[in-house]
Hints:
This protein is α+β, with helices and mostly antiparallel strands.
Amino acid sequence: MSTQALHGLTCPRCGGTVPIPEGQRLVICPYCDLRSVISGEEGVRRYQVPLRVEHEAAEKAFRAFLSSSPSIAPGVARQAQLSEMFLVYLPFWSAWGKGVAWAFGQQRVGSGDDARYEPRERRATAELNWTQVACDVGEFGVQRIELKGCPLEPFDPEALHRKGMVFEPIGSPQQALKDAQQSFKTHIQEKVSLSKTAQVFTRILNPRLGLVYYPVWVVRYLHRQRAYQVVIDGFHGTVLYGKAPGNLLMRALTLIAGMAFGAMLAVDIPALILSISDSEDIVGIALIAFGGGLALMYGGYHRFRHGEHYEYHRFKGTSSSLLELGENTDLSQFLKALREWNS
């Protein structure tokens, strides 16, 4: 882990203070060269994702966002006044593990009169990764991040504090690991689901929990005396969250189109359908068209009513991703993976 000492203990030979880098079990006294083994709970390992997007590139991504959607008012990219821009490191719980599932039951095959249930068994092995934000990110609007493809470096708190703001985690690591294991179990069970499941065996192998500090650029700007914010991914350079003034013309067009097409779908189409026939099936289709028209009208009004501001989220909710090695894994391969993961 980090080469920076987080705390120190007294050397049993000379009484000097021995620095203990985080995660290191064997330490050497700088005064008498006595080697000591550190015992006790290791705690949660901490990592950091390197900053790949510098200030200039982040500002360029911010400007590009302001002209990325027709729902954003025209001219915002030119008129926006940058008020502040700073780097923040947000903590995320991240868990890794490997899952095995084996299900027995019946699968429905065929359709109509030929439908029947046949006995089946399914096996799946999968490598799992789960992430969840470890602090309150309501101020920044970041729901989650994607760690796939990101190198994890040893945590260096002093270096991070020199670069920007570092938020500390809240909540219990035990609860985070419990949530991750439940997510793992749900995902691996979905890979072996059957029409009728009699028994299902699941096992999560070698679950590991870590705390990952992820860099984001926070950009705050003014437009017509109103404050807005955009958050840029410090590794990939993409926008994670952004808020901008809405396009009034687009709102009006959406309202007019929603009302016009909704009225046609809710009134004209059902009238035409009912003029052809009055059977129960036709009436049902007319009712569906009527409901669809009302939904279209409501959607147009809702877009107009709440379109004063444009808000963008790249990700929503907690992250839980699954890499599948194969749902119909050969039995020998399945058992081999199980033995390897247990070793």
